Amino acid sequence: MEINKNIVKTLLNSKRIAIFIHINPDGDCLGSASALKQALVSLNKTVDIFSDSIVPENYNFIKYVTDIKHDDEVAGYDLHVAVDCSDLKRLGKYSKFFNKIENTICIDHHKTKSDYAKLIHNEIVSSAALIIYHYIKDFSKIDKDIACALYAGISSDTGCFMHQNTTSEALRISAELIDYGFDLYEANENLFKYTTLSKFKLTKKAYETAEFFANGKIGMFKLTKADMTETGADISDTTGLVNLITNVNSCQIGIIIYEEESGLFRCSLRSKGDIDVSLVAEEFGGGGHVNAAGCNIFGCLKTVVKKIVSSCSKALKN
Ligand SMILES: [Mn+2]
Description:
This protein has helices at 5-13, 27-41, 95-98, 128-139, 144-157, 168-178, 184-193, 197-209, 225-231, 241-246, 277-283, 301-317; strands spanning 16-20, 46-50, 79-83, 104-108, 119-122, 211-213, 218-223, 253-261, 264-271, 287-288, 292-298.
């Protein structure tokens, strides 16, 4: 991977750096932000990570995750860096602060819209953490805690090395990171086995709502605001649910829609093989990768289901 020398120069020339991650944070944005912060702190920089969302507690094993800031204002930094954010909107309430200063960097691995910063490294690889790994190797060095954070990113976005985006490079780099001696068992328990009672109840509810279309090729979970309230679940509890329906053997596209606010449905899509669900997401102003994408759709449940099924049916034929 070729690194952008201007990005390295800008990182090294900055003293106070703010790192931004996306709403509903996952292992990749958290691991990437943590690793980058650690590498920069080792060079005596002041670094803060900002998140518009509450961070699920299972990520607390990653260094600095418990120090993430949720302030309403961001000021006094000479560099803003966004990691794993395909779109400025993904920064949530921080999107309005990001371009308030001149020096901005975006490091991302999605194929859409990563064009909102002055300096951009956008490369289609399995995780943002994989890109961050190459940068840290260039301007600093990896240690045990950085290795742990990068592993969290790489393993999360490859679904513990089970998604289609898993490459030998991702596995080779992960093996190298594991050799730094962080607690691999603890990391995997937190990343891939952790669940909460509310998530368990929400999963049960999701199974009850499952519906199939196009002769079983499209499968969908539909969760309303009432379902969320009833189970005490929040958005972070919906993470990974979509895979449960995508796993059905007839299913080529798996979808979960859940009502975030009354009339606003968040939609998460997964697909198998070369069926491109990023095109479906883009149709509704979202984005993502070929096999994993997301978007927001406004309307009542019935209309939203109709719209998304019709768009997915087209994707099946392409
Ligand atoms: Mn990612």
